[in-house]
Amino acid sequence: MLRIANRLAQLGIALPEPSAPVANYVPYTRSGRIVHVSGQLSRDAAHEVKGIVGEDVTSEQATGGARLCAINLIAQFRAACGGDLDRVTQVLRLGGYVQAGPSFFAVPAVINGASNLMVEVFGEHGRHSRSAVGVYRLPLNYAVEIDAVIEIRA
Predict the structure, then answer these.
(1) How far apart, in whole angstroms, are the C-alpha atoms of residue 13 and residue 29?
(2) For site-directed labelling of 130, which of 36, 93, 107, 154 has its Cα 20 to 30 A away?
(3) b/e code 129-138 from CB counts within 10 Å (16+ = b)
(4) How far apart are CA 100 and CA 88, in angstroms?
(5) 58 φ, ψ to 5°?
(6) Where are the domains positioned within the chain?
(7) Which one, of 81, 116, 82, lies nearest residue 96 by Cα?
(8) pTM: predicted TM-score of the whole model, two decimal places
(9) Regarding the domain delimited by 3-19+27-152, which CATH topology (the fold level of the hierarchy) does it fall under?
(10) Would you say 146 and 29 are in contact if contact means Cβ atoms under 8 Å apart?
C-alpha cells in the first residue's frame, strides 16, 4: 500500500525525525481517532525561517516556512500513526500563526504554504478548516508556527 509514502517520494519530500518538545508539553495527544499535534516551527535541518514577516522575512520566505511547518507536522502524524501515514483519514484543522510586522496583512497567504502541501500529500483528505493569525511574537523568534488536528484509522 504505502500510498502517502509514495506521494511524499514523488514530491521529493523526506520526512525528518519528529522534533522533541522544547518545553513542558508532548508532541501530540490522541483521544480515540482524533490526534492533536502540537505546534511545529518553520525549520528543517538545513535552515530556519526566523524573524518578523514584512520586516526581516519576506512573504515568500514565510510561505516556504509554513511549508516546512507542514512537513514537520506530517512527521508528527507519522509518529502518531505508528509509522503508517495511510492511517490518516482526514486532516481536520490547521492553526497557523505568523510573527507579523505591523504592516503585514497577508497572513492567510502565508499559511497557504502549509494548506497547499496537506492537499498535495493527502488529496481530498488533506482539505481542512483552519485559522490564520498574525501574532506579536512566536517561540524562539520563528516566523511561522502551525498546529494540527487529524483523524486516524484505528
Answers:
(1) 25
(2) 154
(3) ebebebeeeb
(4) 31
(5) -80, 165
(6) 3-19+27-152
(7) 116
(8) 0.97
(9) 60s Ribosomal Protein L30; Chain: A; (3.30.1330)
(10) no
> Helices (H) and strands (E) in the chain — how many of each?
3, 5
Residue with cell 487529524: 150
pLDDT in tens, the chain (154 residues): 589 999 999 999 999 999 889 899 999 999 999 999 999 999 999 999 999 999 999 999 999 999 999 999 999 999 999 999 999 999 999 999 999 999 999 999 999 999 999 999 999 999 999 999 999 999 999 999 999 999 999 8
Question: Which grid coordinates belong to 48?
Answer: 530556519
Q: How many CA atoms lie less than 13 Å away from 117 in the CB half-sphere?
A: 22
Q: Which residue has the cell 511545529?
A: 40
Nearest one of 128, 132, 70, 136 to 96, comparing CA atoms: 132
